[in-house]
Specification:
By secondary structure, the chain is mainly alpha-helical. The protein has six helices and two strands. α3 runs antiparallel to α6 and α5 (62-96) packs antiparallel against α6.
Length: 203
């Protein structure tokens, strides 16, 4: 009798001890609520300094792309502006024909000398060449400024969209199941039985 009481007591004591499964602990640790980001803050930071919004959104990998684009467009702006001014001054000096300002001589092709410009045909060709070059570098300078503006706007949009999507549900609970299904198990005159596929989305 005494042994039976000890055995039953030990059985009840084992049943009272509950252990939480390891999977449940892991799920609770992963179930921490993700901090929502403010789109207004992200946009403001990017407006003050491009790239700050991406840092706020913790999208650090976008910084090299952004600053690479800024550096490339900045170089294009400087390069085209330099040669636009150079050809603009040369074109102006060639039209005015001021003996003290002959900057156009630096842009003469190696096959043409200064005295060759006395020929009206060569002079007309050279004037048109200077004008075309001037317009060429001005066009690409303007396009570079437009590209820089678009990059700045895209920087703002990217920061805002990333912040909006920060709370978007991308958990493992989202799933898609494909199951076979019988379309109509009881065929009639107006319908026929057949097989099909059912798509089920779990949220």
């Amino acid at each position: 009798m005494f042994c039976w009481l000890l055995a039953s007591n030990s059985i009840y004591s084992q049943q009272d001890t509950l252990k939480m499964p390891a999977d449940t602990v892991a799920v609770k640790k992963k179930a921490k609520k993700k901090k929502a980001l403010s789109p207004d803050k992200a946009t403001f930071f990017s407006a003050v300094l491009p790239g700050m919004g991406q840092i706020y959104n913790r999208k650090y990998w976008k910084l090299p792309i952004l600053y690479g684009g800024i550096a490339g467009l900045g170089y294009a702006i400087g390069f085209n502006t330099k040669y636009y001014r150079k050809y603009k001054a040369a074109f102006r000096d060639f039209i005015i024909q001021d003996p003290n300002n002959k900057s156009y001589l630096e842009l003469l092709p190696p096959s043409i000398k200064e005295e060759d410009l006395n020929d009206p045909q060569i002079a007309s060709w050279f004037q048109n060449a200077l004008d075309n070059k001037k317009n060429y570098y001005r066009r690409y300078r303007d396009l570079s400024f437009i590209g820089m503006t678009l990059l700045y706007v895209l920087n703002l949009m990217d920061a805002s969209v990333d912040a909006h999507l920060s709370t978007f549900n991308i958990s493992d609970d989202l799933s898609l199941r494909v199951d076979p299904v019988l379309m109509d198990p009881y065929p009639s005159v107006y319908s026929k039985s057949g097989g099909g596929v059912k798509l089920s989305i779990k949220f």
